Amino acid sequence: MADHVSTVMAQWEQERPDLDVTPQAVIARLHRLALRLTDELVQVYAQHGLGEGEFDVLATLRRQGAPYALTPKELGEQTMVSSGAVTKRVDRCLAQGWVSRGRRDEDGRGRRIALTESGRELIDAAFADHIANEHRLLAVFTATERRSLARLLEKWAEQTGA
Amino acid sequence: MADHVSTVMAQWEQERPDLDVTPQAVIARLHRLALRLTDELVQVYAQHGLGEGEFDVLATLRRQGAPYALTPKELGEQTMVSSGAVTKRVDRCLAQGWVSRGRRDEDGRGRRIALTESGRELIDAAFADHIANEHRLLAVFTATERRSLARLLEKWAEQTGA
DNA sequence: AGATAATATCTTCCGTGTCAGATATATTCC
DNA sequence: GGAATATATCTGACACGGAAGATATTATCT
Q1: Where are the domains of chain A?
Q2: Domain A51-160 adopts which CATH fold?
Q3: Where does the HTH marR-type domain lie (chains A, B) (predicted)?
Q4: I need a labelling partner for A160 at 20 to 30 A (CA). Which of B51, B71, B137, B146 fits?
């Protein structure tokens, strides 16, 4: 049984025999897979009342270790979103009482976004479910396949600066 | 040199030693990589005056072969977006004269979205550039690595129904 | 110190997507 | 044939992120 991308590639070979569309075997699949996986992950976030943006913020703060705080700039760099998106994500977390927005010492321009107690409890529970979910999604693979896939993706990420 | 995800995983191991976060080596990397690659691909679409949605519509129609037509439902299934998104994407292509929206024979509910001559010319040029871009992005890998990555992603896609 | 530039964050506007419901047409069952 | 249901598409409200510019604060240079 061929997957969708195999079908697509066969169509292109028929229609554009002048092009070598083999890269699609990697890139189109990666793209579709990422979409599909995101759907799966988001469902677990939603079970905890979290959207992707909020989960991203809380998890990023949580993994820094105590006192679970970063500046908006650092948050944006780690999560690959614009400064405007950071502001809005933090606003939403703030409205729920999951984080606080304080003034950073010394530099009046800087802010300090920190997890509150309730935010930490929430992300600790949500993250455990999230990881269980990821284990489920990877259950297709043997340990060797997982390592191989991880290595290839890591190599690619390093090269492209991701 | 460790990539970002390696750092993140080390943080989690420190903070949540109770959890096995190894799936992140695959899932988080895939996620970030997809984001980064999308950025790269979108730049080429933009060189032809296309957004991702428009490129998606035109390319999907083009690869069907003559007469380059599908229903909105089929378009949505192949491109993994909602019916509302299909309507809007087609509206945009329509405004540029790249597709036509006709009535499907027999069934008055159905529509028939078809490439126009100018749409076909546009996507033929854009797609050639797109494939060249994909070749460039995959240049990091040896042929063996590419096949290996493609096989692993295909296996995953088949299992999850992507 | 005062002017200029740099940095950090926030605000505003816009584009695009999803979701729920509206509409139009077709099918089924009596 | 008519009612109920199913299917295909579109519409409208809303959510979220990006981009550019506004604001606030700090650093630098003379």
Answers
A1: 1-47, 51-160
A2: Arc Repressor Mutant, subunit A (1.10.10)
A3: 23-158
A4: B51
